[in-house]
Amino acid sequence: MRWKTIAAVLCGASCALALAPAAAAAQTAGTAYVVHGIPDTPVDVYVDGQRAIDDFQPGTVQGPVQLPPGPHEVTLYAANTPDNSGTPLLRADADVQAGANLSLVAHLTVDGEPTITPFANDVAPVPAGEARLVVRHTAAAPAVDVRAGGQPVVTGLTNPNQRALEVPSGTVSADVTLAGTDQVVLGPANLNLSEGTATFVHAIGSASEGNLSLVSFTISGLHSAPSGVPAGSGTPASGAPWAALGAVGLLVLAGGAMAGRLRRSPR
Q1: Residue 173's beta-bridge partner residues?
Q2: Which end of the chain is more exposed for a tag (fewer CB within 10 A), N or C?
Q3: Helical residues (DSSP H) of the chain, grouped into ranges
Q4: For 148-187, how does the pLDDT look when each residue is reduced to its tens digit (9 = 90+)?
């Protein structure tokens, strides 16, 4: 895999923030989930020079995190690198915006290049008896279809896009096929879609490398207009530095982009 300088343009995320309801915009904090979908690349995450996540493994999720507004510097190093030493894999300056619920997904492009994509998490109320299923194509793979119970429910999904469905609550068997075919590339997997929840499923990895997989998290408490912050199923973290890390998912940078350097680390 070739590693190169990457830039994650966050216009979509910042636009979503601008369109958020006034009540959400008035909040003093936002919420973020961080999804690690770049294979074979465990990292340590630093925020404002302090180690915030140690040995963050591919195929895992960190969050939810309540985020203080303001500027922060976020740096990723190869896992187990001595504190603040060596060449960072990725560095970004983040200015936290209040009131949104976002995912920041580190993943591969369709061509297998590492990148970072922000997604707005839909945490609107879910109708009674239903659940929300959000599928995200964040893998180095061509367009795919998603089937539930053997029937296509999402067709022609491409990287880096998402599709949301509201479905009857319960357990569903889902798989992923190459678009327009019955060739299964992921699954089947049983998804427990409880009433009043939103489950976010990410396809990660590389088809050519044979390491495609799924990583997901669930946000609960969406039965009706919530009285507080919805709860999530990602791995929580403690301490002020980690709270700053989540800010990456809500950042707005000069020029509307987050830039960093990502290289293969010595083995």
Answers
A1: 190
A2: C
A3: 11-18, 22-25, 240-245
A4: 989 999 999 999 999 999 999 999 999 999 999 999 999 9
